[in-house]
Specification:
four-stranded antiparallel β-sheet, alpha/beta, about 350 residues, seven-stranded mixed β-sheet, 2 domains, Aspartate Aminotransferase, domain 2, Aspartate Aminotransferase, domain 1
Length: about 350
Amino acid sequence: MRYDFGSDNTAGMAPAALQALIDANAGYARAYGADEITARAADQIRQRLDADAEIRFVFSGTAANAIALSMLAWPHEAVLAHHAAHVCTDETGAPGFFGQGIGLIGLPGFSGKIDPKALLAALEEPEVGHRQPPAALSLTQSTEYGTVYTEEELRHLIEPVKTRGYGVHLDGARLANAAAGGFDLTQIPRLGVDVLVFGGAKAGGLCTEALVMFDKSLARRIDNRLKQAGQQASKARYLAAPLLGMLESGDWEGGAAHANLMAQRLAQGIATRTPFVLAHPVEANAVFVRMPAKAHQALNAAGWACYRFDDGSVRFVCSWATEEAAVDELLDAVAGLN
């Protein structure tokens, strides 16, 4: 089975990330995040965001998202999110687990982007004592369908939420791909995001994400919270080092730019060489194709791992490690389907 396109999680660590991990293994370092490597990695993130923030590194995006949402809503409240967002479909109730019962309200919208009208309708719902009222908004950049919110689109979603005094979380598991696609990272704190998950794993790092708290009041006793959640690493430098390597070398952006380019190559080939059609705009590193179940099964049987997504389309994901030859070979295989 070939895993080139099953997910960007199937790729290994980027060379700069792996080398930084090796370098971090030399000598001794202070434990629990008090080391120089962790500090440098946090500074690199602050520089890209052009903002001061409290930053911690955790073991997974699921934990980062769930802990972030638990900061923004009480157990009797809920978080608004796109119905296909990772927090709604792929985290096994983790937001409710870490948040001691906080709920999720799924919203519609094309290609993974929340419909502003649907958001306003949810915000204007009367509060009653029999259901959890919204207290925060969760956004994903780039989205689960490989699209990228513009600054203006984000503003239209965030402003009505902030006007009501609610919090805003941004899931940036594929933030590098959004940045490589032209999204200005410095707009994130300026738009009013309270807490960001800065992605490392899908960009080519270890299974590590950074929890970035622009609202520093959210960081009160954060180390106690992470310790209780099993997310505070004693040898924290090993979480931060791969991200540091990619950020200092520029490979965080460079690898994402390559992944996006490979996705464009694949999308163009699908459109011009095959009988299938694209299901969503290709703005980051994912390509979604309308494909009958029989054709998808044949592709899997031929050794190409690809995933049928929530909307019924077949998802192909490119990574920092995807090669042009692999894209072209996949296109040959897809063109041969009937």
